[in-house]
Amino acid sequence: MTAGRPPEGPPLVLKFGGSAFADLDGYHLVARYAVRRVTDEKRPLVVVASAMSGTTGRLQQTLDALVDAPPADAAAMLLTTGETVSVALLAAALDAEGVMARPLQAAGTGLLAEGPDDRAGLVSAGPGTLAEALADCPVAVVPGGQAVDADGRTVMLGRNSSDLSAVAVAAALGAGTCELFSDVPGVCTADPYLVPEARTLSRISYEGVRRMSRHGAKVVHEGAVDWAEREGVRLLCRPFPWCEGPDSGTAVGTGPEAAAVVVHKNSDVWCFRSGPERRAVAGQLWAEGLAVAEFDTAGEACLTVPTGARGVARHLRAAHRLDDLCLITTLWPDGRTEHTVVPHPEAAAEARRCHALLYPDPEGTRGPPVPPPAKARSPHSDVLVGPARPLPTENRQLN
After folding, report:
1. Which region, left, alpha or beta, applies to residue 124 given φ > 0 means left and ψ of -120 to 50 means alpha?
2. What does the pLDDT read at residue 101?
């Protein structure tokens, strides 16, 4: 494929999560898939790349071990390096497949944000720079979760925000669909790593998937859903390695509401003296880009807070943590929400029980409990910081 190839339609926009890059061969697999799509559909392509699995978490650990309260601009500079590495590696893999690919940094995405450098809010997306790149190359590779501020500095759109980057790019370039690839079959009725009986939904409404995200499900970034609905971008959540067939995965746009079980396995449970106090803290944490869930249990006003989130201690001084407890949320199709708190070791079994109530199986089809498989973490995720080491005791709590 050569430079100057005229586009034959609106660009394809594909986003690949970190699980696609669990090992270096993942970059070759993504590159080959990208080549196939460009060749078959004869359209330019934008690939939004996430950091290889585990990288951002390792960088965060390293930063936490160094200082208690790093400045936001330093945090953003460090935590965005994982996506930058992925962009370079994927562009190299595409070149090895004989395809010209333009690796771009945040300034080349056309995304503008404002707010704290490590949790900035996306305010606009322009097509100019990307359109120019695609006029010369069939493929552009851009970093997920990154934008620039009014001064042209690279900022971070918060954790797990590659979906938002992809949707905003798709809208700016006039792509009607944005495809999001991850390590699950699509939008599922529960985490399939914990609930083997989880079903993959063929379609779901924007509000349905937004509700799941708001209640802690790791499906589609809530900001990405909002942007997609406002701009009229259809989302297609698909597995990687990919499933053949145009209808594989979950289409997000029109469809049913959420009916799912959400396990808040990576969040701590904090209790407050009153509901108004909890609501005030929840609002402050939402404003800082942190996904939290409010609920009541045993007469106490509680809130889930992502484990290890930076900078939240000042909001939680009047709260106490319920150690080793996990929240399970059932989202009923009629809009009801039910919360259950169980010890972490019992979370998978409780999630299966709740899912069976939501989706009763025919008699005898439920098998014995299946230990959840471990999610892959790339052995190359230590490339920037070296092997993982236990954090010093004083840095293991929220800072």
Report:
1. beta
2. 96
Which residue bears the tokens 């404002």? 114
Q: Cα–Cα distances in Å, from 222 out to 195, 209, 325, 341, 398?
A: 23, 8, 25, 24, 24
Could you say which DSSP state residue 354 is in? H
What is the structure's pLDDT at 385? 61
Nearest to 326 by CA among 252, 269, 285, 364: 269
pLDDT tens, 184-222? 889 999 999 899 999 999 999 999 999 998 888 888 999
Q: Which two tokens stand for residue 141?
A: 């590779």
Tokens of residue 90, six digits: 């994927």
Look up residue 393 and give its amino acid.
T
Give the burial string for 29-52 (b: 16+ CB within 10 Å, else e).
Answer: bbbebbbebbeeeebbbbbbbbbb
Alpha carbon 92 to its chain's center? 24
pLDDT of res. 377: 62
The Cα 81–Cα 24 span in angstroms is: 17
User: Looking at residue 381, what is its pLDDT?
Assistant: 62
Burial label for 276, CB within 10 Å (0-12, 13-18, 19+), is exposed
Low-confidence ranges of the chain (pLDDT < 70): 1-8, 242-247, 362-399
Phi-psi map region of 284: left, alpha, beta (phi>0 left; psi -120 to 50 alpha): alpha
pLDDT of residue 384: 63
What angle do the packed helices 128-136 and 162-173 form, to 10 degrees? Answer: 80
What's at 342, amino acid-wise? V
Instruction: Read off the pTM.
Output: 0.86
3-class secondary structure, 148: strand
By residue count, the chain amounts to 399
Query: Minimal CA–CA distance to 49: which of 21, 74, 68, 28?
Result: 21
